Known about the structure:
This protein is an all-alpha fold. The protein contains 9 helices and no strands.
Amino acid sequence: MTQPAPPFWHRPTLGHLRHALILSAAVGVWFGLVYGGADWLTHQHSYRLRLHSDAELRVPFVPAAVIGYVSLYPLFIMAPFVLRSGRELRALAVSLAVVIGVAGIGFLAFPADNVFPTPDERGGWSPVVRFAKWVALDYNLAPSLHVAMGTLCAAVYSRQAPPIGRAALWLWAGVIGLSTLLLHQHYVVDIVTGYLLAFVGVRWVYDRLLQTPPASPARHPAPPA
């Protein structure tokens, strides 16, 4: 008789939440250094690459897409309520850190400008859209770190979800990617490379960290009788 699968959600202990908060703070600091630093360095020179096609510039601006865009943040918050062990939390944090570092190299290697036309009307979404664009800074386009981090979290969580949950998580990752285009934050190549970077982060970092057996405590020889 097969054992029933554990529920997707679980109630974390205070220690588990504290551990998740510390890891989140560390990843947040790393993100700020890499993302802000890459944007600042790109601002120091005028060399730019063209990453877009003319057809992409005709994609309509959809202010309501900001809902999908900012839905990235609940994905981060979910971590301690889905991942049950500190080892899984650490593996996710390291995977996000590696993805951020690789993306930073991409930002510097492929500097580009966001040349989407400035939207004339944002409607009632204006404050949230303004915040999203402020956080995104001016450069840092390829790969889309927004897409990469969201997809990485969705891929990790989906392994503990039932079939409907897995479909919902992958749909969520797709919505985040589409929102970056409809919000005129990223080009298609940014989105595609963001998804690729997420899969690399899962397969080559997260999975390998979990496959590595945890270090066992050192054994001290028993004293002679």
